[in-house]
Amino acid sequence: MSSKIVGFMGKAQFRALLLVCGLALTAAAQIVAPAPKTVVFMTDFGVVDDSVAICRGVMYSIVPDLRIVDLSHQVTPFSILDGARFLYGATPYYPPGTVFVVVIDPTVGSTRKAIVAKSRRGQLFVLPDNGLLTLVEQRDGIEAVHEITNPAWMIGGKLSSTFHGRDIFSPVGAHVAAGEDWAQVGPEVAVKDLVRLDLKPAKLDANGLSASVIATDGPFGNLVTNIDADDFLKLGYLRGQSVTFTVAGKELTVPFVRTFSDVPLGKPLFYIDSRGHLGLAVNQGSFAAIYGIKPPAELLIPRAKK
Fold it and tell me: What are 239-261's pLDDT values in tens digits?
């Protein structure tokens, strides 16, 4: 049959027809290919026992082809602030529709709400209402929130009072990632009623920047701030220039440089960290320990003098 077609059309025309058909099939496959169902999973459970694996198993039992990305399971135990900053750092790198399941829940079993929230970037968050969304809300905004009360979205006839990661957050996260109507988890909650950490959002005005030190960077003692690099650069400082500022009520003068080795050993520096935020460090030392700074702390940076 194909030889008759070739004879009728000519070889060049036949090849062109095959090429067009192939491109059409490829385009059609791309159009109908569903987006992967993705959950980004973060806890303070650690990895020495079976807790994380159990939660992953719950999600896989509901959505077998689910893709689970582990953000971290080594968050400082009970540190809502660390969880909030890891969400703040990771969310820009994931597309709309991504579901974040976060279980850092020091008051598990109490009257605190379990919620699903949607940001204005179109990402969904399944977590306890304890301040974990503070930094994401300050940057992206929160569009809507529902409290998780629907037992059909949970597992088990009798919920544990201490393992809501397994019984509530994991199954809800899987159902949401599968594309089910997340509003069915329970009643709507006013966004204004969300629990928030006491962190001052970065604010740029005529006087300069007022912001917060939100964490220390792992074991190194670098200070992590909620100041985006672009906002800091609007103050008019150039690399190599000294910056006089106030942190936790202490006035200091520190050079703004590219990296740690741009200053002598044991000397402080301002730099743009790997997440694109302003950071404070000491070359091969701990800024937090040397200057006695414990997050959260207020940070005030004036505009550069002309």
Answer: 999 999 999 999 999 999 999 99
**Is 107 in contact with 81 (CB distance < 8 Å)?**
no
Q: For residue 246, give the nearest of 299, 297, 286 by alpha carbon.
A: 299
Burial class (CB in 10 A: 0-12, 13-18, 19+), 192: exposed
pTM over 0.85: no
Domain boundary pick from 155, 173, 193: 193
Instruction: Let me know whether 123 and 22 are in one domain.
Output: no
Pairing of strands 222-228, 277-282: antiparallel
Domain containing 241 equals: 203-302
Is 148 in contact with 186 (CB distance < 8 Å)?
A: yes
- Same domain for 48 and 93, yes or no, is yes
Residues sharing a CB contact under 8 Å with residue 193, sequence separation 6 or more, in sequence order? none
Task: List C-alpha distances in Å: 70 to 44, 74, 138.
Answer: 12, 10, 24
212 in the same domain as 154: no
Burial class (CB in 10 A: 0-12, 13-18, 19+), 273: middle
223 with 189, same domain? no
Split into its structural domains, the chain has a count of 3
Say how far apart CA 291 and CA 251 lie, in whole Å: 11
Residue ranges of the chain whose pLDDT lies below 70: 1-35, 157-158
Quick check: is 114 in a domain?
yes
